[in-house]
Amino acid sequence: MKRSTKISVEMHKLLIEKRMDGFSVVEARNASLNVEQDTQNLDEARKKIYRQIWQYQQKGWLRSEGEGRHKKYFQTEQFRNLQVTPRKKAAYANSAKESTSDYSVLLHECNEYKGELEIVLGEIEEYQSLKSRFPELECKLAPLLQQAKERSAHLLGKMNGLTNVLKTLSGDCQPC
Q1: In whole angstroms, what separates CA 11 from the centre of its chain?
Q2: Given this model, what pLDDT does residue 17 score?
Q3: Strand residue runs (E) in 34-77
Q4: How many CB atoms lie within 10 A of CB 82?
Q5: In what helix (H) or strand (E) does residue 148 lie, and over which residues does it extend?
């Protein structure tokens, strides 16, 4: 009896259950997001799928045709002859819990947002100054000013969220 090869749950669902063959990285990412029903960053999901595809290519389980965005991946006979089972997710759940215990990354992110917000506020000031100095440019500056205001609101929201979480975690007022 052959020993089964364990592969990631996502790739098992895509390659075995959905029988994907002749797919691009983006198609695999989209199918993976549909299966997982997870609201993760599209770019991160694409990178995760690509890393797995690349590993499978190195093992000779997938081959590619085409280049760039037109590259398609196909299952090889070697992969079709394998007996594969999905890896258990329990190992991933434990490592995820361990990695989230370091919250210093949140403080770092909050400080990054603060710096970005200061830049956007400077941008807003400059657009307002230009608008008053050159009234004829108002129709061209108005959309830029509006976009900058929206970015500042978005960044302020992120900062407030992180600040509230950091306050909750530390128990005392720890601003960014």
Answers
A1: 18
A2: 84
A3: 62-65, 72-75
A4: 18
A5: helix 138-170
